[in-house]
Amino acid sequence: QKEVEQNSGPLSVPEGAIASLNCTYSDRGSQSFFWYRQYSGKSPELIMFIYSNGDKEDGRFTAQLNKASQYVSLLIRDSQPSDSATYLCAVKPANDYKLSFGAGTTVTVRA
Amino acid sequence: KAGVTQTPRYLIKTRGQQVTLSCSPISGHRSVSWYQQTPGQGLQFLFEYFSETQRNKGNFPGRFSGRQFSNSRSEMNVSTLELGDSALYLCASSLQDSTYEQYFGPGTRLTVT
Predict the structure, then answer these.
(1) pLDDT, tens digit, for every residue of B59-88?
(2) What span, in angstroms and rounded, lies between the C-alpha atoms of A108 and A33?
(3) What secondary structure letter does DSSP report for B48?
(4) Residue B48 is nearest to which of A42, A43, A97, comparing CB atoms?
């Protein structure tokens, strides 16, 4: 079983729609959860982090965490062409100094 | 505040050679992690350093090594390069252990021919 799994892409959404990205993790003791955005040819950029169950909103982004279900998601509202990128889910396993990354979901926002 | 910097940005080496990559973390960050990113394997953890001590190591052969200096700058070394070592090598730094938000540098693109 992979440590972090993301829904397979690519995901294509029309401009202005909501893009929904999902991620599950295997280490039940994990406490820190992150979403990174990576444009083609660039390095990952941290866009959201969440530590407690529930929702966390930052602008057009909302991260949702459900530790009981070992599930974390990212919603992108009012999607823009500039949101077209690969989104990486990352989890810090309990008692481990590293981040485990999912394979990423590529999002394309079509105008 | 300046971000994470990595040098060089691009590198072309021949099989069998060795290479050293450098990373300067964000000012005040004491944890530095290294990752390898390839299209087939995604982002794979190499190792993590904190206060000059390696606290964690990923599942890579001993040809991959690293170190951290007293100013938190870090280097990684790959000896006896193989074609499969061609990848984007990313360095990330973080401030706090408890939350572990990591910020990435631009990466070093290594091509082994």
Answers:
(1) 999 999 999 999 999 999 999 999 999 999
(2) 23
(3) E
(4) A97
